[in-house]
């Protein structure tokens, strides 16, 4: 069994750019009096979409190439509660890229309490929408991902991966 890296501090996560910053509205609250699990997932998905759009994987890319991204594996961790009225932000750390996949982890920070509340580790495949099969990255997108992976590999803290998800040869 692989031992996961220790969780980063909130200061370490906050050093990554915030993809989303917003305040948890009343409709996010569940019957337990905190933000519902689906809302965390929604934050991660919206931040991933924004990050991919910034890379160039957007509607125009899909229309021009016929390629997109599919989720392959995910690991969601709940580290603390978020309550209505708390300000949250989502920060993305790029971990690795393979010929047809990429590995990343995003963090939800509760800015009100100053804590890392949640993380989502993902393996995403680059796919041909016609064949519905994984395909090689467009060179420009691969280069951008590689730049981000290299920059994040230089961070002074290891990515807290679960050990079960990763780029395989």
TrEMBL record:
Q: What is the lineage of its organism?
A: Bacteria, Bacillati, Actinomycetota, Actinomycetes, Micrococcales
| Protein name stated in the entry | Acyl-CoA thioester hydrolase
The record, for Gene3D superfamilies, names: Hotdog Thioesterase (3.10.129.10)
Q: Tell me which SUPFAM superfamilies the record gives.
A: Thioesterase/thiol ester dehydrase-isomerase (SSF54637)
Domain of life, per UniProt, equals Bacteria
Q: Which Pfam families match?
A: 4HBT_2 (PF13279)
User: Which organism is the protein's source?
Assistant: Janibacter indicus
